[in-house]
Amino acid sequence: MLEIIDGIIQAFQLIVSLDPELLQVTELSLFISLSATIISTLIAIPFGGLIHFREFRGKRVLITIIQTLYSVPTVIIGLVVYLLISRSGPFGVLELLFSPVGMIIGQTVLILPIMTGLTISALSGVDRNIRETLVSLGATEFQNITQIILEARFAILGGIILGFGRAISEVGVAMMIGGNIRGETRVLTTSIALETGMGNFGLSIALGIILLLIALVVVLIMNFITSGALTESDRVRGGPQA
Q: How many domains does the chain have?
């Protein structure tokens, strides 16, 4: 019990003093996860929109596969990416293994199915009356798609934030692709695992507190987006009441 108390005290001392190692690990974690989220967003929204707005053979099967990938263990994603970018893999010549870029690729592969599936769900949840109104007003296909995406923007933003939360909290891909190299590829989750195993409870608790604070910010943003969506929905449906 005393070790835990001492660890908590040391953790707050490290946070208050802005420990350089603590800051470096946090900054790298945010950089990698934000980069993976941005890349996934640029792919997931157009790809999810394409699947939603187009009818083709095997569409239901494709959506089922995407949804199945939600729950794929991170170590499986790490293994696949590792085999692809390792020295003996097809992309080994790029020397991406044990580098931040390799970790970004791994996290992108991890969260891309989630963000794509949530984009499809968000677009599918748009009121059918809106679509029918757009058609009756003579909107072009581009105008129709643009307006539906705008209607689903809160749900899509929620999916983006959820993807970021999934990226920054995972450990399997970061450990396998990054190698947990100090000062180069060590991030919050891998640092917590390492420092706990070494008995450095103060640093591991400090890292855990920072990770929890980031998770709290993500949840608060999601709640803000959700409340904004509900408020706008009520305003559109009922308008101001006398």
A: 1
29: its two tokens: 């974690």
CATH number of the domain at 64, please: 1.10.3720.10
pTM, entire model: 0.85
- Report yes or no on 241 lying in a domain: no
How far is 119 from 124, CA to CA, in rounded Å? 9
Q: What is the pLDDT along the chain (242 residues), one digit of tens a residue?
A: 666 777 777 777 877 888 888 889 989 999 999 999 999 999 999 999 999 888 889 999 999 999 999 888 888 999 999 999 998 889 989 989 999 999 999 999 999 999 999 999 998 888 777 777 777 777 777 778 888 888 888 888 888 988 998 999 888 899 999 988 888 999 989 998 888 888 887 888 888 888 888 888 887 887 776 676 556 555 555 544 43
Helix/strand/coil percent split, the chain, to 5:
80, 0, 20
